[in-house]
Amino acid sequence: MLTRTPQETWSLFLEFIEEKCSATEFQNWFASIRLIDVGSDDLCLEVPNIFVQEYILDNYKKDLAAFLPTKPSGELAVTFIIAEAKKKQTPLPATEPVSPAPIENQPGQPELKLNPFYTFNNFIEGPANQFVKSAAFGVASRPGKSYNPLFIHGGVGLGKTHLLHGIGHYTREHHKKLRIQCITTEGFINDLVENLRSKSMDRMKRFYRSLDILLVDDIQFLQNRLNFEEEFCNTFESLINQNKQIVITSDKPPGQLKLSERMIARMEWGLVANIGVPDLETRVAILQYKAELKGFRIPQKVAFFIAEHIFNNVRQLEGAINRLSAYCRMMNLDATEEVVEKTLSELFQYTPQKKISVDNIIKSVATIYDVRVSDLKSTSRSKDVAFPRQVAMYLAKELLNDSLMKLSTAFGGKTHSTLLHAWKKIAGQVETDETLRRQIDMARRNLES
Length: 449
Ligand code: ADP
Ligand code: MG
Known about the structure:
Number of strands: 8
Mean pLDDT: 86
Number of helices: 20
Strand content: 5-15%
Strand order of the largest sheet: 5-6-7-4-8
Bound molecules: adenosine-5'-diphosphate, magnesium ion
Structural class: alpha/beta
Largest sheet: 5 strands, parallel
């Protein structure tokens, strides 16, 4: 029988559940769970707090039981550890490759828990994240003096937490005297619950209000938690009023969060920056970088192949590299496109191709040349209309597989030789005419968007 390691089992489950639930549900309940390597075949999961453990057991028990080991009684054979309660030095996952940034907490400073790999240096920039990266760097260089608060929002797995921790690392290194706290919204809520229980709210207030930099991850967790929201808002205002730096991340822009108007307005005070999906070249650069860190080589062509198929989540790109490198090492194979197809195809995302039709082409060309669709289909020989019509014919022959006969009918019954003539003429002209080439590119992009 093929037995899986706890890591493989957990990865399989995560892949399954990520598909099954919404991105927000995944982010809220599963993204923060960590598999703890206890060096045996047992499955041990670290959850950020008891709420997460109870929630997933209440709501996802069947799914969990389908993947994770169970006892003969049917109960899950899984140990849960609450993050706060576990020993401080959890060993780093064995897969992490390079030596991380040193973690040194200054004496007398609050303990700062940062992922050692989430530094600015390890962050690959591209057009979709350059703005937010430079905003993060600006804030880290001059805390409290540039944008306050900085609000970073964007989809799952695009590097929000990475940048937040990047600010933490940088400020710890460059502003040694400043008191920094980096916390998830869950962590803040837990703290609050704990302090309410032990009647030490004053101490908590004093602690948070004495900070110079407060980094808060995943503020969307504050939604529907009215009591906690108010305390967070008070902390927020107290810090901002003293020009202390606040950085917040979220999966949505402030206005789309179900929070009080007061809270939303506060978060919009400073700079709201969106982190987008990296473009193809950046995805390739990220893949190459992550592969290099693992001492694994992938040819450029193969990196493009992967990046073309995994396009909206950097975490999945990382997962792809991990899986591919493990497979290649195990089987002693080079990373070729065939091997990629074999090992990664279930991670691949396919966009439904928009169906291109002659009518769409005519519409798109009509917009570019500011003429009427009916004119392009008419027999008018006026130059204003005849030229765009030829462009549309050219595009139709280029983009569609239909016979000339069929295409010409769609243009109001022109002969197929008219269409062929138009195609030849435009195909020749586009070689040398830069303006025409741009117009055609634009029409093409309209069709594909
Ligand atoms: P989010 O918080 O937006 O869900 P994370 O910050 O956790 O996403 O990023 C997911 C993973 O992808 C992390 O391992 C992170 O290091 C990596 N990552 C995201 N963006 C980049 C980037 N631009 N360069 C390098 N690694 C990145
Ligand atoms: Mg995150």
